[in-house]
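Job type: complex structure
Entries:
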Amino acid sequence: MNYLLGIDLGTTGLKVSLFAEDGTLTGSQSCEYPLLTPQTGYVEQDPEAWWQGFVSVIQRLRVAYPESFSHIVGIGLCGQMHTQVYLDQNDRVLRPAITWMDQRSSDIVTRIQGDPISREMLYQETANYPSTTYTALQVKWVQENEPEVWRQTRSILVAKDYLKYRLTGVKATDFAEASGTLLFDVRNERWSTAAFDYFGISLDLFPPVGPSDKIIGSTTRQVSQETGLKQGIPVVNGSSDNSASALGAGMVRSGQVTLIIGTAGVVSVCSDRPLLDPAGRTLCWHYCLPEHWVTLGITQTAGESLQWFKNAFEPQDAPQSGSGDIFNRYNQAITQVPDGSDGVIFLPYLNGERTPYWDSSARGVFFGLNLATGKAHMIKAIMEGVSFALRNNIETIEALGIQIDEIRAVGGGLKSPVWLQTLGRILKKPISTVNMPDTANLGNILLCGKALGLVSSYQQSVERMVAIEQVVHYPEGVPVYEKQYALFLELYPQLQPLYRKALE
Amino acid sequence: MQTRAALHLLAFDLGAESGRTMVGHFDGERLELEEIYRFPNSPVRVNEHLYSDVLRLWMELQTGLQKANAQTETGLASLGVDTWGVDFALLDRQDRLLGNPFHYRDPHTHNALATALECVPQEEIYAQTGNQLIEFNTLFQLVALKQAENPNLQAAHSLLMLPDLFHFWLSGQKATESTIASTSQCFNPYKLTWATDLLQRLGLPTHIFQPVVTAGSLLGHLQLWLAYQIGCKPIPVIAPACHDTGSAVAAIPVSEPHFMYISSGTWSLVGVELEQPLINAATLAANLANEGGVGGRVRLLKITPGMWLLQQCRSEWARRGLVYTYAELTSLAAAAPSFGALLAVGAQEFMAPGEVPERIQAYCQSTGQPVPQTVGEIVRSILESLALEYRLTLEGLEALLGWPVQVIHIIGGGSRNSLLNQLTADVTRRPVIAGPVEATVAGNLLVQAMGLGYLSSLDDLRQVMRRSFETQIFEPHSNDRWEEAYYRVRQLNAYGGNP
């Protein structure tokens, strides 16, 4: 049996998993590394900590599974997007990596935001808007504020590309990862010279960009000595963490959606052509599969809305009693509340809203409170309101010319069976939840397996490898939700001028 | 036995001979069962045909609901229905029932399997559905309706499996629950969607199939007219594992992940639980079915003869005035000598009802074995042969899976037979854990508790089962003579006659 190694270089830690080629997980090991905050708003990481973390994790994996370890035939990897490493002419690290969470480029962002022509040019070129998360903005900051580093910089690599470089000695990146730089022409799968020119960054600083499922090199002798991995194991180009996670959850064709309800609610819609929104409401990234793109809709406060309710209305030191934690009790309470929460509608804009409104002034609203409203009604209304906001995002993307026919939900937010049912009735699409702890690494090894010829069809492989846990599908929905959704859509534009006024 | 339980859940369990309304009292830790109402449920014969009398069953469900509601002071938290597999109802475009649903034992499916195989080879039907090819499966029932140009099929707007039908009438929500769908041979167990391609190739309408939801889904609340009529609030309607075996296996008090289960009744369903379906040439050759379980699990199983032979002997003897209880039969067998004649329990000659004791004796004669004479000897032969049959299935599964079975769980009515439990332990050389008898109902109820958010996983559900029900452990006592008997039974199975 052949084995494949997946590496997920996350923001707080690194997870390495060993899979048999049929997708069966042999075992995983992980480690954490710190986020460095030299001053407020700055969030950095030491690239050497990633490498040392990887070396220690790989040793543990080798000890735990010596037999499988000796039969590794390929390595796939993904990582946190946007975070970048600066290398000098000898490929030494010049400064700590600046992570996607770092806010230091906010002034630069404000500058561009105030210049509608530049903003529009960047959207046309890259299908994305400037924000502090994107690589180009942070590079621009280094250029303006750290001339000594900038003078010595000869190459810039996004996090997992740096790890890949350490493994193989080859510098390369992929379409999915490049989508997070704001320097990449997402539609045409090439670096945008216009964007590079705009930022005054030289194109040679970034590596060549190619498909995710191509082998770019193999493990070096030095790596072999340091890690115990054999020399010459092929390493695949790989992709971004959210792209690999979606693949590992089974998103393999146009019309499928991956939904994550965490703090925020994120819908990633897969399409076989880039879906650019003329109105600029949604973002488009390249997917890790060739000729596939993802369009993103993001509801800012999804799981966070329930968390807010708990923080606001539950005593902090209440004893844990009854049937499990507070969220379980919320779920139990709302099963007896009718759909529509007896007229209460919640707008989940507690911290503004991203897609489709891009309005940081928006705020949360409970609409329709009445004498019959109880706590359980408000909790159910929150779940319904977040579901409406997700439907709004999905319909906004569908209006760009795609029919969405399947939603795959990953992550903890939909552990609540009750919320899943509500979401099913509001979205009216088939939703399946995926019961996999490590979809990112499954995505990694699928890309690697494809590059090596071990995977013939992504579609067939995910059918065999990705275990579905729950399915709901209520295509006709329920009348009360259709009525409430129409109201929900009307409420925001009515309130928008008042939100502005409230901030004055 | 009403307790201070926080939650009162209602299960309707429709079985081959009777239907029951059971209330489960669940305090978050333990489940207690209370039978509210029981009614007969046998197929209704009209001339050549056998039907399920769904309107009468619907009436019985309402009666049960009324009684349960009257007995539960704090109100029912939810309700759900489980039944046997494969049977279905057709509805017209206004959601009215089209005729009486056929019972799966109706002879109209007689040539349907052969007809289907003319269009699509066996391997492909298996590859798409993972079910054993049996002619009473939903797929072949539909092929039979199509062949007969049945007007109900032509007028059909929706197909609902029987539990789905009752859930629809209760809640107004049309959907098919995935464990019951997985018995239909119309369903892809990898994708948890209908096998549309297969249905199209057989010329069957695909638009009648309903959206699929998994066990634990809150389908809706009791329709208002019904709630008024019963005099209760709109109780949540939750799809349990609607296939009775699915509910039963969910309720196994598992503590060791590598277990085999025997759901023991007239038939024994012998299998293992997997994360993903296993469909390949070897599972096809071994005649293994992939059926859906709770939490996305798959039950890879074989349908083997269970208590059928014993039941047939018992009624045949009773017909002749020799009336025994099962307990009496088992003690007669316990007193009879071991290692006598053995049977290939799946042999064709044992399938038809009637003079089974004579056929057993004739079988022993023709296979050159000592012929069992007394009631005790015959029963002993049956039970030992069943235990050996279980070992055959176990070793077949182990060879396919690549992991050893550590323990065998026997659930259902047959788990009361201590002699068979001990024989199974001895023959398979694995510990046997017997019980609970009421696994199906308990599984139905606790999946509802999951759907309500009171249990977060199948593992939690099984912990409740471990706390709530007594089980009995049978440790294996090895005896080399079983090896020789096992060899003989393999020969009997392989050659159907003289070794």
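Summary: Residues 219 and 232 of chain A are 5 Å apart (CA to CA). Chain A touches chain B at residues 322-324, 328, 331-332, 335-336, 338-339, 415-418, 421, 424, 430, 432, 435, 463-465, 467-475, 478 (CB under 8 Å).
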